[in-house]
Specification:
- By secondary structure, the protein is α+β, with helices and mostly antiparallel strands.
- The chain has one domain: Helicase, Ruva Protein, domain 3.
- It contains three helices and three strands, in the order H-E-H-H-E-E.
- Strand 2 and strand 3 form a beta hairpin.
- Helix 1 packs across helix 2 and helix 1 packs parallel to helix 3.
- The protein is globular.
Length: about 100
């Protein structure tokens, strides 16, 4: 299931490429998303919605608030039953 999280993360990365934004999912974040995105009745089908609700939507809001900029690299981690977003490399400002 964690492999499927990786596939979904790569798809999200392709969407973020337009904004030159990179994400890095920690192992804890991958495990959290795999757990949240699995349903015994539906398997991994809910994972795409979980990725959108818990990664893509909060990241879009953070971009709108100016917390991240084009060219940034963002680490997504899981702590205390939720995801955290941290800039680990800033965009290089052109002079």
């Amino acid at each position: 299931l964690v492999e499927i999280v990786g596939i979904q993360a790569r798809r999200l990365q392709q969407l973020l490429a337009d904004r030159q934004l990179e994400i890095e999912l920690t192992d804890a974040a991958r495990a959290y998303l795999a757990d949240e995105g699995y349903d015994p009745a539906y398997g991994a089908r809910p994972l795409k919605r979980v990725m959108q609700r818990q990664v893509q939507d909060p990241l879009a809001l953070a971009l709108l608030r100016g917390e991240f900029s084009e060219g940034d690299r963002v680490r997504v981690d899981a702590q205390n039953s939720h995801l955290t977003f941290e800039r680990i490399a800033q965009a290089v400002q052109e002079a």
